[in-house]
Write a structure and sequence with these properties.
Shape: globular
Distance between the termini: 63 Å
Order of helices and strands: HHHHHHH
């Protein structure tokens, strides 16, 4: 009866990924790509009266000309007119929620099913997951004000009609995630270079509270 119950050789199951320290870390590493690169043509500081674009072409010209609208800020590969690579810090909606889904997947699995990873590594990765989710939502509310707060990975039976939460509720959610992260992340001295730590979580908290103020 179990003749066809074979372990796939071309994919990894969630049990295999989230119960392996190396694979789980690789999964979280992929979420680091939600950090936008601020050093490019169409960064968020371009949307100011002081913004000046001195080159020709159309990649970010519409920002300096004050012609940016909710429709043309969409990327070309999404059906809009924004440059796919030169304005990637502006419209982060799709990218952020895709990574939030993966972070929710990891957090939900570990909280509900547990993990056989050693406690120190598990706590660090959970801290990074909460911190990255907080950073993702911070960048969203910085651009869009109140956004839908989603804390569980969607499946076919999920309610896809989640409404946008109020800005203050989003701020509270981000600060709650950062508090969880601070309790799980290692200190800067005990952390590998390039990875999230308590100091980073505190720095994000400073940005969020400044934005809210």
């Amino acid at each position: 009866d179990d003749y066809l119950d074979k372990t796939p050789l071309d994919t990894l199951s969630e049990d295999a990924v989230f119960n392996s320290a190396a694979l789980a870390e690789s999964f979280i590493n992929a979420a680091y790509s939600v950090l936008p690169d601020p050093f490019q043509e169409g960064n968020i500081s371009s949307i100011t009266d002081e913004g000046y674009f001195r080159y020709g072409g159309t990649s970010t010209r519409y920002i300096a000309s004050g012609q940016m609208t909710p429709s043309n800020v969409m990327y070309m590969d999404e059906g809009g007119s924004a440059h796919n690579t030169r304005t990637t810090t502006l419209n982060i909606w799709n990218r952020a929620y895709e990574i939030i889904y993966n972070l929710n997947y990891f957090i939900t699995f570990v909280n509900e099913k547990g993990s056989r990873i050693d406690e120190e590594t598990k706590n660090r990765l959970m801290g990074e997951a909460y911190c990255l989710r907080a950073w993702s939502y911070y960048n969203l509310i910085q651009r869009y004000a109140g956004v839908p707060i989603i804390t569980k990975p969607h499946n076919l039976d999920s309610d896809f009609g989640v409404t946008r939460s109020k800005f203050d509720d989003c701020v509270d959610f981000v600060l709650d995630d950062l508090e969880k992260a601070e309790g799980l992340l290692p200190t800067k001295d005990a952390c590998k270079t390039g990875r999230l730590n308590k100091d980073v979580a505190l720095a994000i908290r400073a940005r969020v509270t400044l934005l809210a103020a």
